[in-house]
Amino acid sequence: MTYTALATTLAAAIYYPATNPKDPTAEELHRLREEQGIDAVLERVCHIMPSEPAAKIVKEQISFLKKKGWLHV
Q1: CA atoms of 46 and 10, how far apart (whole Å)
Q2: What is the pLDDT of residue 60?
Q3: pTM score, whole prediction
Q4: DSSP 16-62
Q5: 14, exposed or middle or buried, with CB in 10 Å at 0-12, 13-18, 19+?
Q6: Distance between CA 27 and CA 63 in Å, rounded?
Q7: What kind and span of H or E run contains 66?
Q8: Which residues contact 48 (CB under 8 A, 6 or more apart)?
Q9: What pLDDT does residue 47 have?
Q10: 32-55 tens-digit pLDDT
Q11: Judging by beta carbons within 10 Å of its beta carbon (0-12, 13-18, 19+), is residue 62 exposed, middle or buried?
Q12: Predicted confidence band at 20 (pLDDT cuts at 50, 70, 90)?
């Protein structure tokens, strides 16, 4: 079984734009990603250790979505 769809959803959520002032959680997520990187988001928010296979799949999907131009970075 693969978890590509779930990993794609996580990848998109990690890059959710922090443009809504009524959504402080989005701003916190954005700040964590910018200051400490994807591994910190995976570990602290998603509870996925960076060494786990799931983390690798999420990072692959981030790369895929960036190449498609579907992530606002």
Answers
A1: 8
A2: 97
A3: 0.89
A4: -----TT-HHHHHHHHHHHHH-HHHHHHHTS---TTSHHHHHHHHHH
A5: buried
A6: 22
A7: helix 53-68
A8: 42, 54, 55, 58
A9: 97
A10: 999 999 999 999 999 999 999 999
A11: buried
A12: confident
